Amino acid sequence: MPLTKQRKEVYKLLRQIFRKAYELDYIKKDISEFVELGKIATKSRNALNLDEQRKLWEALGDDMFSRRVRFYMLTGARPSEIATVRKDELRPGWLKINGTKTANAKRWVKISDKLYNMLLGESPEFFTFNGKLFRQRLQRFCASLQIESSIDVYTLRHTFATNLYLLRIPEKDRQQYMGHTVGSKITNSVYTTFTPDTKPQDIINIFGDWLPEFLTPRFAKF
Q1: Rounded CA gap, 175 and 160, in Å?
Q2: In whole angstroms, what separates CA 143 from the centre of its chain?
Q3: What is the C-alpha R_g of the chain?
Q4: SS3 state of residue 219
Q5: Is 19 exposed, middle or buried (0-12, 13-18, 19+ CB in 10 A)?
Q6: DSSP state of 91
Q7: Distance in Å from the first CA to the final CA of the chain
Q8: Distance between CA atoms of 32 and 20, rounded to whole angstroms?
Q9: pLDDT digits over 42-71, tens only?
Q10: Taking burial as the number of CB atoms within 10 A of a residue's CB, which of 43, 83, 86, 126 is the most buried?
Q11: For position 151, which CATH number holds?
Q12: b/e string for 161-174 if b means 16 or more Cβ within 10 A?
C-alpha cells in the first residue's frame, strides 16, 4: 500500500474495528494496540543515464509537450515552478524562477540563447497546464522509448543536477541553480547520481547548443 495518506486511513480504520469488536465481545482481547503503521518505503529517484537522455532528447519534436520537456531538462525546475516564469523577466542567458518552496527557490538559472529565444516565443498556455496530465503523458512517451516508465519532472530535475556535476560546474553555482541553500549537502547527496564513466563531452554531445555558453567546449576546460 504505497500511498501514505491511504495507508494511514486504513491503519486508523483497523484500530477502530478491533477496538469495537473487543467492546462488543466479538474478540476476547483488545488487539488494536498491536496494530502498527509501519514504515512507508519511499522510492528513490535517479537521474536518467546517458542512453536514456539521448533517446528522450532525440525523440522530442517541436510541439508544446516536447518544449516543456526541454524546459525541465535544461532548468531543473520543480513541477509547478514553470508557472512562476515571466517572459518580461527573461534576460539573455538567464532565466528567473520565482519558486516559493524555500527561501532559495527564487533564483536565476543560466540558460542558452536557444532556450531563451524559445521561451520568448511561447504563449501563456506554455507556462500553465495540468501537471498530472503532463506527467502521465511523459510516462507514456518514455515507456514507448523503453525508458523507465515511472519518470516524472523530478527525474528530469535529478538529471539536470547530475549533468551540472558531470560538467564540473562549481558546487556553489549548482546549489544556486537548484534552489538549494549554499553549503547544504542535498544537491550532491540527494539530487546527484554518480556515474564515473560519463565525461563532460558526453553531455555536450546530447544537448549541443541548447546548453549555456559556459558549458560548451569554447568556454569549458575539460
Answers
A1: 12
A2: 17
A3: 22
A4: coil
A5: middle
A6: B
A7: 47
A8: 9
A9: 455 688 989 999 999 999 999 999 999 999
A10: 126
A11: 1.10.443.10
A12: bbbbbbbebeeeeb
d(CA 56, CA 45): 17
DSSP state at residue 43: P
Predicted confidence (pLDDT) per residue in 26-36, tens digit: 787 777 666 66
Cell of 25: 465481545
Q: Using the structure block, give the residue that is written with the C-alpha cell 558546487.
A: 171
- My answer on whether 11 and 104 are in the same domain is no
Q: What angle do CA 78, 81, 83 make, to 5 degrees?
A: 145
What are the residues whose beta carbons fall under 8 Å from the beta carbon of 104, sequence distance 6 or more? Answer: 176, 179, 180, 181, 182
> Does an H or E element contain 192, and which?
none
45 within domain boundaries: no
For residue 27, what are the domain limits?
A: 4-34
CA 123 to chain CA centroid, Å, is 23
What beta strand segments (E) does 71-117 contain? 94-98, 106-110
Q: Which three cell numbers stand for residue 2?
A: 504505497
- Amino acid 187: pLDDT: 57
